[in-house]
């Protein structure tokens, strides 16, 4: 089994300064780490480097026998907008795939020079379980929000899927797991792209009734995405109703089972038609 937390660290329109937010985010991470014990944490949005380092420490200190490290891309040096993956090194060996990622982008850009031109918006990591040797291609993805319209963002997301699949074809993972802030209404995306086949499925869901973003009628933008071999242990992710003055988006947690006998062909040859586990509007 593999478990993951997805947390957008953006501040939204809050009047709280980051040191105050950071203290409250630290409390949240400590509590989730102690109770849920995620193996992987996906993060996105603007957050100071020194505060990201505290998340690494809080995870390691509150999950017994763990040692977390952070792999990230910085999207904007001024705002510290980033995408990150926190991994437990006591469970996973991290395999360098930087060259494979670069080659996929170079090949895609031969025919399309602007292909996924904001590639820092996705960080990709290949992690191999120390016990069992299962390989996971992990990605944290933060789709562009500003100065872009819906059709352009849809193209941006499709190019991310193409990039992800290209890397998967090179590194041959057993499974793919993505934590994302898509900044996009993905139920509409699913309907518009229902004839397309992608290497991952977006796990759609609705906010629970008591969630602040549900009450204020805000869109769901944060999603897990999985390749066919991963099986969610619940119909929907756990959604944490954190005050939006602290975290603009509600964090998610989910666990996934996978067959030990699974082979690499599951992610590269058995792609998934664009359907979801939740078809409600």
Please tell me about this protein's structure:
The chain has 281 residues and is an alpha+beta fold. It is built from seven helices and 15 strands. The strands form three sheets. Strands 1, 2, 3, 4, 12, 13 and 14 form a seven-stranded mixed sheet that branches. A six-stranded mixed sheet has the order 5-6-7-8-11-10, covered by helices on one side. The protein has a two-stranded antiparallel sheet with strand order 9-15. α4 links the parallel β7 and β8. The longest helix is centred in the middle third of the chain and has 22 residues. It is globular and about 45 Å long.
Strands, count? 15
C-alpha-based Rg, rounded = 18 Å
Order of helices and strands: EHEHEEEHEEHEHEEHEEEEHE
State the end-to-end distance: 30 Å
Largest sheet: 7 strands, mixed
Portion in beta strands: 25-35%
- The chain-level structural class is alpha+beta
> What are the segments in which pLDDT stays under 50 over at least 5 consecutive residues?
262-266, 275-281
Task: Give the integer mean of the pLDDT values.
Answer: 90
């Amino acid at each position: 089994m593999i478990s993951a937390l997805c947390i957008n660290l953006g501040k939204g329109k809050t009047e709280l300064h980051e040191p105050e937010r950071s203290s409250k985010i630290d409390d949240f991470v400590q509590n989730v780490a102690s109770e849920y014990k995620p193996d992987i944490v996906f993060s996105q949005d603007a957050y100071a480097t020194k505060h990201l380092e505290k998340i690494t420490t809080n995870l390691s200190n509150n999950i017994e026998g763990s040692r977390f490290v952070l792999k990230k891309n910085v999207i904007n040096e001024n705002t510290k907008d980033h995408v990150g993956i926190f991994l437990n090194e006591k469970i996973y060996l991290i395999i360098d795939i930087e060259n494979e990622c670069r080659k996929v982008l170079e090949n895609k850009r031969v025919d399309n020079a602007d292909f996924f031109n904001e590639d820092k918006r996705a960080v990709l990591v290949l992690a191999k379980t120390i016990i069992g040797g299962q390989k996971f291609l992990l990605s944290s993805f933060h789709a562009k929000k500003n100065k872009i319209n819906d059709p352009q963002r849809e193209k941006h997301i499709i190019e991310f899927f193409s990039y992800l699949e290209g890397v998967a074809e090179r590194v041959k993972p057993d499974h793919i797991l993505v934590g994302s802030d898509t900044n996009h209404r993905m139920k509409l995306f699913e309907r518009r792209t229902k004839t397309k086949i992608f290497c991952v499925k977006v796990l759609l869901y609705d906010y629970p009734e008591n969630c602040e973003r549900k009450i204020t009628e805000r869109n769901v933008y944060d999603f897990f995405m999985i390749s066919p071999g991963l099986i969610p242990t619940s119909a929907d992710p756990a959604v944490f109703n954190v005050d939006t003055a602290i975290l603009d988006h509600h964090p998610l947690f989910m666990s996934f089972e996978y067959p030990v006998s699974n082979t690499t062909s599951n992610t590269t040859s058995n792609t998934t038609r664009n359907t979801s586990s939740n078809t409600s509007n």
